[in-house]
Amino acid sequence: MMNVGIIGLGDMGKMYALGFAKAGYTVYGSDLPQRREELNETLNPYGITILEDGKEVSRICDVIFYAVESEKIEQVLAMYGSSTKYGAIVAGQTSVKHPEITAFEKYLPKDIQIITCHSLHGPGFDPAGQKMIVIPHRTSNEAYQRMTDLLSCLGSELVEMKDYRDHDRIVADTQAATHVGFESMGTAWASAGFFPWENASYLGGIDNVKILTTLRIFSYKAHIYAGLAILNPFARQQVKRYAQSESELFKMMIMEEEQEFRNRLYKVRDFVFHESRKPLLLDDQVMQEFSLSTSPGVRKANSHLSLLSMADAWYHLQINPYDNLICQTPPFRLRLGIVEYLFRNEDLLEESIHAALFDKSIRADDLEFHSAVREWASIIGYGDMEGYKQHFDQTKLFFKDRLEHGREQSSAMIKRLTDQNTFPSVPF
Q: Is the pTM above the cut of 0.90?
Protein backbone atom coordinates (compact mmCIF):
# COMPACT_ATOMS: atom_id res chain seq x y z
CA MET A 1 0.00 0.00 0.00
CA MET A 2 1.35 3.43 -0.96
CA ASN A 3 2.16 6.23 1.47
CA VAL A 4 0.02 9.25 0.61
CA GLY A 5 1.05 12.76 1.62
CA ILE A 6 -1.01 15.95 1.83
CA ILE A 7 0.83 19.26 2.04
CA GLY A 8 -1.75 21.81 3.17
CA LEU A 9 -4.49 20.59 5.49
CA GLY A 10 -7.15 23.22 5.02
CA ASP A 11 -10.73 22.18 4.30
CA MET A 12 -9.95 20.43 1.00
CA GLY A 13 -6.68 18.92 2.20
CA LYS A 14 -8.41 17.40 5.23
CA MET A 15 -11.18 16.04 3.04
CA TYR A 16 -8.60 14.23 0.88
CA ALA A 17 -6.63 12.98 3.89
CA LEU A 18 -9.71 11.52 5.55
CA GLY A 19 -10.91 9.93 2.31
CA PHE A 20 -7.60 8.16 1.69
CA ALA A 21 -7.24 7.09 5.33
CA LYS A 22 -10.73 5.58 5.37
CA ALA A 23 -9.81 3.63 2.22
CA GLY A 24 -6.91 2.02 4.09
CA TYR A 25 -3.96 4.09 2.85
CA THR A 26 -1.18 5.29 5.15
CA VAL A 27 -1.58 9.06 5.17
CA TYR A 28 0.87 11.76 6.24
CA GLY A 29 0.23 15.49 6.26
CA SER A 30 1.69 18.86 7.13
CA ASP A 31 0.57 22.44 7.48
CA LEU A 32 1.75 25.58 9.26
CA PRO A 33 3.59 24.87 12.55
CA GLN A 34 0.97 26.69 14.64
CA ARG A 35 -1.73 24.29 13.39
CA ARG A 36 0.11 21.07 14.23
CA GLU A 37 -1.45 20.51 17.67
CA GLU A 38 -4.97 21.18 16.39
CA LEU A 39 -4.46 18.88 13.39
CA ASN A 40 -3.06 16.11 15.58
CA GLU A 41 -6.18 16.23 17.73
CA THR A 42 -8.47 16.24 14.68
CA LEU A 43 -6.74 13.73 12.39
CA ASN A 44 -4.71 11.36 14.58
CA PRO A 45 -7.86 9.40 15.57
CA TYR A 46 -8.21 8.46 11.88
CA GLY A 47 -4.64 7.17 11.67
CA ILE A 48 -3.31 10.26 9.89
CA THR A 49 0.20 11.29 10.96
CA ILE A 50 1.05 14.99 11.07
CA LEU A 51 4.70 15.67 10.28
CA GLU A 52 6.80 18.74 10.99
CA ASP A 53 6.73 20.17 7.45
CA GLY A 54 6.29 19.42 3.76
CA LYS A 55 9.92 18.35 3.44
CA GLU A 56 9.30 15.37 5.72
CA VAL A 57 6.11 14.50 3.84
CA SER A 58 7.91 14.70 0.48
CA ARG A 59 10.76 12.39 1.55
CA ILE A 60 8.61 9.40 2.54
CA CYS A 61 5.45 9.55 0.41
CA ASP A 62 4.80 7.78 -2.88
CA VAL A 63 2.02 10.20 -3.86
CA ILE A 64 2.02 13.82 -2.71
CA PHE A 65 -0.86 16.28 -3.05
CA TYR A 66 -0.28 20.02 -2.73
CA ALA A 67 -3.54 21.46 -1.35
CA VAL A 68 -2.48 25.09 -0.91
CA GLU A 69 -3.73 28.42 -2.22
CA SER A 70 -2.99 29.08 -5.89
CA GLU A 71 -1.13 32.27 -5.08
CA LYS A 72 1.22 30.38 -2.70
CA ILE A 73 1.91 27.27 -4.76
CA GLU A 74 5.30 28.49 -6.08
CA GLN A 75 6.47 29.56 -2.63
CA VAL A 76 5.57 26.16 -1.15
CA LEU A 77 7.14 24.16 -4.02
CA ALA A 78 10.33 26.20 -3.68
CA MET A 79 10.60 24.97 -0.07
CA TYR A 80 9.68 21.32 -0.49
CA GLY A 81 9.85 20.28 -4.15
CA SER A 82 13.52 19.25 -4.16
CA SER A 83 12.91 16.82 -1.27
CA THR A 84 10.40 14.73 -3.23
CA LYS A 85 10.98 10.98 -3.04
CA TYR A 86 12.56 9.44 -6.16
CA GLY A 87 9.90 8.41 -8.70
CA ALA A 88 6.99 9.75 -6.64
CA ILE A 89 3.74 11.06 -8.12
CA VAL A 90 2.93 14.70 -7.41
CA ALA A 91 -0.47 16.34 -7.82
CA GLY A 92 -2.00 19.71 -7.05
CA GLN A 93 -5.49 20.46 -5.86
CA THR A 94 -5.60 24.10 -6.90
CA SER A 95 -8.39 25.31 -9.17
CA VAL A 96 -6.01 27.10 -11.56
CA LYS A 97 -3.39 24.93 -13.21
CA HIS A 98 -1.14 27.46 -14.97
CA PRO A 99 0.77 28.58 -11.82
CA GLU A 100 0.69 25.04 -10.44
CA ILE A 101 2.26 23.38 -13.49
CA THR A 102 4.81 26.20 -13.80
CA ALA A 103 5.89 25.59 -10.19
CA PHE A 104 5.97 21.80 -10.62
CA GLU A 105 8.20 22.02 -13.69
CA LYS A 106 10.49 24.54 -12.00
CA TYR A 107 10.99 22.87 -8.63
CA LEU A 108 10.37 19.12 -8.98
CA PRO A 109 13.17 16.73 -10.02
CA LYS A 110 12.89 15.32 -13.54
CA ASP A 111 12.15 11.78 -12.32
CA ILE A 112 8.90 12.89 -10.67
CA GLN A 113 5.56 11.96 -12.25
CA ILE A 114 3.16 14.93 -12.49
CA ILE A 115 -0.52 13.93 -12.53
CA THR A 116 -2.59 16.81 -11.26
CA CYS A 117 -6.28 16.91 -10.39
CA HIS A 118 -9.15 19.21 -9.48
CA SER A 119 -12.23 18.26 -7.46
CA LEU A 120 -15.12 20.27 -8.89
CA HIS A 121 -16.84 20.86 -5.57
CA GLY A 122 -16.18 22.45 -2.21
CA PRO A 123 -15.34 20.66 1.04
CA GLY A 124 -19.00 20.83 2.06
CA PHE A 125 -19.84 18.12 -0.48
CA ASP A 126 -19.19 14.40 -0.20
CA PRO A 127 -16.77 13.71 -3.09
CA ALA A 128 -18.68 10.52 -3.99
CA GLY A 129 -20.48 11.10 -7.28
CA GLN A 130 -18.89 14.52 -7.84
CA LYS A 131 -16.62 15.23 -10.80
CA MET A 132 -12.85 15.23 -10.50
CA ILE A 133 -10.64 16.35 -13.37
CA VAL A 134 -7.42 14.34 -13.80
CA ILE A 135 -4.59 15.74 -15.96
CA PRO A 136 -1.68 13.39 -16.87
CA HIS A 137 0.92 16.08 -17.45
CA ARG A 138 4.17 14.09 -17.17
CA THR A 139 3.74 10.41 -16.40
CA SER A 140 4.26 6.79 -17.33
CA ASN A 141 1.27 4.54 -17.98
CA GLU A 142 2.05 2.52 -14.85
CA ALA A 143 2.14 5.62 -12.61
CA TYR A 144 -1.07 6.93 -14.15
CA GLN A 145 -2.83 3.65 -13.37
CA ARG A 146 -1.63 3.80 -9.75
CA MET A 147 -2.86 7.37 -9.44
CA THR A 148 -6.31 6.71 -10.87
CA ASP A 149 -6.66 3.64 -8.64
CA LEU A 150 -5.91 5.86 -5.65
CA LEU A 151 -8.29 8.64 -6.68
CA SER A 152 -11.06 6.14 -7.38
CA CYS A 153 -11.31 5.35 -3.68
CA LEU A 154 -12.89 8.78 -3.13
CA GLY A 155 -15.88 7.75 -5.22
CA SER A 156 -15.65 10.76 -7.56
CA GLU A 157 -16.35 10.56 -11.28
CA LEU A 158 -12.92 10.86 -12.89
CA VAL A 159 -12.76 12.92 -16.07
CA GLU A 160 -9.47 13.00 -17.98
CA MET A 161 -8.24 16.16 -19.65
CA LYS A 162 -4.97 15.91 -21.58
CA ASP A 163 -3.92 19.55 -21.32
CA TYR A 164 -4.00 21.82 -18.27
CA ARG A 165 -4.60 24.81 -20.58
CA ASP A 166 -7.93 23.33 -21.70
CA HIS A 167 -8.84 22.91 -18.04
CA ASP A 168 -8.14 26.57 -17.25
CA ARG A 169 -10.00 27.81 -20.33
CA ILE A 170 -13.17 25.94 -19.37
CA VAL A 171 -12.86 26.72 -15.65
CA ALA A 172 -12.66 30.43 -16.53
CA ASP A 173 -16.34 30.08 -17.53
CA THR A 174 -17.59 27.43 -15.11
CA GLN A 175 -16.01 29.04 -12.06
CA ALA A 176 -14.45 32.51 -12.48
CA ALA A 177 -17.16 34.12 -14.64
CA THR A 178 -19.89 32.21 -12.80
CA HIS A 179 -18.69 33.45 -9.42
CA VAL A 180 -18.44 37.07 -10.59
CA GLY A 181 -22.08 36.98 -11.69
CA PHE A 182 -23.27 35.83 -8.28
CA GLU A 183 -20.76 37.99 -6.37
CA SER A 184 -22.09 41.01 -8.25
CA MET A 185 -25.63 40.17 -7.20
CA GLY A 186 -24.53 39.91 -3.57
CA THR A 187 -22.62 43.18 -3.71
CA ALA A 188 -25.58 44.93 -5.36
CA TRP A 189 -27.99 43.76 -2.66
CA ALA A 190 -25.55 44.73 0.10
CA SER A 191 -24.99 48.17 -1.45
CA ALA A 192 -28.75 48.70 -1.74
CA GLY A 193 -29.07 47.66 1.90
CA PHE A 194 -31.73 44.96 1.62
CA PHE A 195 -32.03 41.20 1.77
CA PRO A 196 -33.45 39.97 -1.55
CA TRP A 197 -35.76 37.39 0.05
CA GLU A 198 -37.61 40.32 1.68
CA ASN A 199 -38.20 42.02 -1.68
CA ALA A 200 -41.11 41.14 -4.01
CA SER A 201 -38.84 41.42 -7.08
CA TYR A 202 -36.90 38.38 -5.87
CA LEU A 203 -39.66 35.88 -5.20
CA GLY A 204 -39.97 32.77 -7.33
CA GLY A 205 -37.95 29.79 -8.46
CA ILE A 206 -35.19 31.51 -10.47
CA ASP A 207 -34.59 34.07 -7.74
CA ASN A 208 -34.47 31.39 -5.04
CA VAL A 209 -31.59 29.81 -6.99
CA LYS A 210 -29.86 33.18 -7.40
CA ILE A 211 -30.12 33.97 -3.69
CA LEU A 212 -29.06 30.57 -2.37
CA THR A 213 -26.14 30.25 -4.80
CA THR A 214 -24.94 33.74 -3.86
CA LEU A 215 -25.10 32.90 -0.15
CA ARG A 216 -23.31 29.62 -0.83
CA ILE A 217 -20.41 31.40 -2.56
CA PHE A 218 -20.05 34.00 0.19
CA SER A 219 -20.09 31.29 2.87
CA TYR A 220 -16.65 30.12 1.70
CA LYS A 221 -13.25 31.83 1.92
CA ALA A 222 -12.34 34.73 -0.35
CA HIS A 223 -8.96 33.33 -1.41
CA ILE A 224 -10.65 30.41 -3.23
CA TYR A 225 -12.40 32.75 -5.64
CA ALA A 226 -9.62 35.34 -5.85
CA GLY A 227 -7.15 32.80 -7.19
CA LEU A 228 -9.64 31.49 -9.73
CA ALA A 229 -10.36 34.93 -11.12
CA ILE A 230 -6.93 36.55 -11.03
CA LEU A 231 -4.43 33.74 -11.64
CA ASN A 232 -6.31 32.05 -14.49
CA PRO A 233 -5.07 33.69 -17.72
CA PHE A 234 -8.40 33.02 -19.46
CA ALA A 235 -10.60 34.45 -16.70
CA ARG A 236 -9.98 38.14 -17.27
CA GLN A 237 -11.15 37.93 -20.88
CA GLN A 238 -14.37 36.20 -19.89
CA VAL A 239 -15.08 38.50 -16.95
CA LYS A 240 -14.37 41.53 -19.15
CA ARG A 241 -16.83 40.22 -21.75
CA TYR A 242 -19.46 39.62 -19.09
CA ALA A 243 -19.07 43.20 -17.86
CA GLN A 244 -19.24 44.50 -21.43
CA SER A 245 -22.42 42.52 -22.15
CA GLU A 246 -24.03 43.81 -18.97
CA SER A 247 -23.07 47.40 -19.75
CA GLU A 248 -24.36 47.27 -23.33
CA LEU A 249 -27.67 45.72 -22.26
CA PHE A 250 -28.07 48.21 -19.41
CA LYS A 251 -27.56 51.14 -21.80
CA MET A 252 -30.26 49.76 -24.12
CA MET A 253 -32.58 49.44 -21.13
CA ILE A 254 -32.24 53.03 -19.98
CA MET A 255 -32.56 54.26 -23.58
CA GLU A 256 -35.65 52.00 -23.99
CA GLU A 257 -34.31 50.67 -27.30
CA GLU A 258 -36.93 47.95 -27.39
CA GLN A 259 -36.45 46.46 -30.84
CA GLU A 260 -32.67 46.32 -30.69
CA PHE A 261 -32.79 44.89 -27.15
CA ARG A 262 -35.30 42.18 -28.07
CA ASN A 263 -33.55 41.26 -31.34
CA ARG A 264 -30.23 40.94 -29.56
CA LEU A 265 -31.62 38.62 -26.88
CA TYR A 266 -33.45 36.40 -29.33
CA LYS A 267 -30.27 36.08 -31.38
CA VAL A 268 -28.52 35.04 -28.15
CA ARG A 269 -31.27 32.52 -27.41
CA ASP A 270 -31.05 30.93 -30.84
CA PHE A 271 -27.29 30.42 -30.49
CA VAL A 272 -26.88 29.39 -26.85
CA PHE A 273 -30.10 27.40 -26.52
CA HIS A 274 -30.23 25.91 -29.98
CA GLU A 275 -32.54 22.92 -30.29
CA SER A 276 -29.50 20.65 -30.69
CA ARG A 277 -28.47 21.31 -27.05
CA LYS A 278 -29.58 18.77 -24.48
CA PRO A 279 -31.42 20.91 -21.91
CA LEU A 280 -30.99 20.63 -18.15
CA LEU A 281 -34.67 21.40 -17.50
CA LEU A 282 -34.56 22.48 -13.88
CA ASP A 283 -37.77 21.67 -12.03
CA ASP A 284 -39.70 24.87 -11.25
CA GLN A 285 -41.62 23.25 -8.40
CA VAL A 286 -38.36 22.27 -6.67
CA MET A 287 -36.90 25.75 -7.20
CA GLN A 288 -40.06 27.28 -5.68
CA GLU A 289 -39.70 25.18 -2.52
CA PHE A 290 -36.37 26.65 -1.46
CA SER A 291 -37.31 30.17 -0.44
CA LEU A 292 -35.87 32.15 2.48
CA SER A 293 -38.90 34.44 2.47
CA THR A 294 -41.09 34.21 5.57
CA SER A 295 -44.16 35.63 3.82
CA PRO A 296 -45.20 34.53 0.32
CA GLY A 297 -46.13 37.96 -1.07
CA VAL A 298 -46.92 38.67 -4.72
CA ARG A 299 -44.06 38.20 -7.18
CA LYS A 300 -43.05 41.25 -9.20
CA ALA A 301 -41.50 41.09 -12.66
CA ASN A 302 -37.70 41.14 -12.68
CA SER A 303 -35.37 42.16 -15.50
CA HIS A 304 -32.99 39.28 -14.67
CA LEU A 305 -30.20 41.49 -16.03
CA SER A 306 -27.60 39.20 -14.45
CA LEU A 307 -28.89 36.20 -16.42
CA LEU A 308 -29.40 38.06 -19.69
CA SER A 309 -25.78 39.24 -19.43
CA MET A 310 -24.50 35.71 -18.84
CA ALA A 311 -26.14 34.40 -22.00
CA ASP A 312 -25.08 37.47 -24.01
CA ALA A 313 -21.45 36.93 -22.95
CA TRP A 314 -21.57 33.28 -24.05
CA TYR A 315 -22.90 34.41 -27.44
CA HIS A 316 -20.18 37.02 -27.98
CA LEU A 317 -17.43 34.64 -26.88
CA GLN A 318 -19.00 31.93 -29.06
CA ILE A 319 -19.03 29.57 -26.08
CA ASN A 320 -21.38 26.62 -25.95
CA PRO A 321 -21.85 26.34 -22.16
CA TYR A 322 -23.17 22.78 -22.49
CA ASP A 323 -19.71 21.72 -23.71
CA ASN A 324 -18.29 23.11 -20.46
CA LEU A 325 -20.35 20.72 -18.36
CA ILE A 326 -17.25 18.51 -18.49
CA CYS A 327 -15.94 20.83 -15.73
CA GLN A 328 -19.27 21.54 -14.12
CA THR A 329 -19.55 22.68 -10.52
CA PRO A 330 -22.81 22.99 -8.53
CA PRO A 331 -22.97 26.81 -9.02
CA PHE A 332 -22.29 26.48 -12.76
CA ARG A 333 -24.99 23.81 -13.17
CA LEU A 334 -27.44 26.11 -11.42
CA ARG A 335 -26.28 29.15 -13.39
CA LEU A 336 -26.73 27.41 -16.73
CA GLY A 337 -29.98 25.86 -15.54
CA ILE A 338 -31.66 29.14 -14.58
CA VAL A 339 -30.42 31.01 -17.67
CA GLU A 340 -31.79 28.13 -19.76
CA TYR A 341 -35.08 28.25 -17.83
CA LEU A 342 -35.43 31.97 -18.59
CA PHE A 343 -34.57 31.78 -22.29
CA ARG A 344 -36.59 28.64 -23.02
CA ASN A 345 -39.74 30.11 -21.47
CA GLU A 346 -40.83 32.76 -23.97
CA ASP A 347 -43.49 34.26 -21.68
CA LEU A 348 -40.95 34.70 -18.89
CA LEU A 349 -38.35 36.07 -21.30
CA GLU A 350 -40.84 38.61 -22.64
CA GLU A 351 -41.81 39.56 -19.08
CA SER A 352 -38.13 40.17 -18.30
CA ILE A 353 -37.60 42.20 -21.48
CA HIS A 354 -40.60 44.40 -20.67
CA ALA A 355 -39.51 44.86 -17.05
CA ALA A 356 -35.95 45.69 -18.11
CA LEU A 357 -37.11 48.38 -20.53
CA PHE A 358 -40.15 49.94 -18.88
CA ASP A 359 -40.43 49.07 -15.16
CA LYS A 360 -38.82 52.02 -13.39
CA SER A 361 -39.48 50.47 -9.95
CA ILE A 362 -36.60 48.01 -10.43
CA ARG A 363 -34.24 50.40 -12.23
CA ALA A 364 -32.45 51.26 -8.98
CA ASP A 365 -31.68 47.57 -8.38
CA ASP A 366 -30.35 47.20 -11.91
CA LEU A 367 -28.16 50.27 -11.41
CA GLU A 368 -26.69 48.73 -8.26
CA PHE A 369 -25.98 45.53 -10.16
CA HIS A 370 -24.41 47.49 -13.03
CA SER A 371 -22.09 49.27 -10.57
CA ALA A 372 -21.22 46.01 -8.81
CA VAL A 373 -20.24 44.27 -12.07
CA ARG A 374 -18.00 47.22 -12.95
CA GLU A 375 -16.33 47.06 -9.54
CA TRP A 376 -15.64 43.32 -9.70
CA ALA A 377 -14.43 43.48 -13.31
CA SER A 378 -12.04 46.34 -12.46
CA ILE A 379 -10.56 44.51 -9.47
CA ILE A 380 -9.98 41.39 -11.57
CA GLY A 381 -8.69 43.40 -14.52
CA TYR A 382 -6.07 45.06 -12.30
CA GLY A 383 -5.08 41.69 -10.81
CA ASP A 384 -5.74 43.08 -7.34
CA MET A 385 -5.72 39.98 -5.12
CA GLU A 386 -6.04 41.87 -1.82
CA GLY A 387 -8.69 44.19 -3.22
CA TYR A 388 -10.68 41.14 -4.32
CA LYS A 389 -10.54 39.61 -0.85
CA GLN A 390 -11.53 42.87 0.85
CA HIS A 391 -14.45 43.43 -1.53
CA PHE A 392 -15.60 39.84 -1.01
CA ASP A 393 -15.37 40.02 2.77
CA GLN A 394 -17.24 43.33 2.89
CA THR A 395 -20.24 41.77 1.14
CA LYS A 396 -19.88 38.59 3.20
CA LEU A 397 -20.23 40.66 6.37
CA PHE A 398 -23.62 42.00 5.23
CA PHE A 399 -25.05 38.48 4.86
CA LYS A 400 -23.15 36.91 7.79
CA ASP A 401 -26.22 35.82 9.78
CA ARG A 402 -27.71 33.88 6.86
CA LEU A 403 -24.66 32.30 5.23
CA GLU A 404 -24.69 28.97 7.06
CA HIS A 405 -28.43 28.50 6.55
CA GLY A 406 -28.09 29.56 2.92
CA ARG A 407 -25.35 27.01 2.31
CA GLU A 408 -27.43 24.24 3.93
CA GLN A 409 -30.46 25.18 1.84
CA SER A 410 -28.44 25.39 -1.36
CA SER A 411 -26.96 21.93 -0.71
CA ALA A 412 -30.43 20.50 -0.21
CA MET A 413 -31.70 22.26 -3.35
CA ILE A 414 -28.76 21.02 -5.44
CA LYS A 415 -29.41 17.47 -4.26
CA ARG A 416 -33.12 17.69 -5.09
CA LEU A 417 -32.51 19.17 -8.53
CA THR A 418 -29.73 16.67 -9.26
CA ASP A 419 -31.91 13.74 -8.20
CA GLN A 420 -34.60 14.86 -10.63
CA ASN A 421 -32.29 15.59 -13.56
CA THR A 422 -29.67 13.65 -15.45
CA PHE A 423 -26.91 16.16 -16.16
CA PRO A 424 -24.73 15.52 -19.20
CA SER A 425 -21.36 14.11 -18.25
CA VAL A 426 -18.25 12.66 -19.78
CA PRO A 427 -17.20 9.24 -18.45
CA PHE A 428 -13.57 8.55 -17.49
A: no
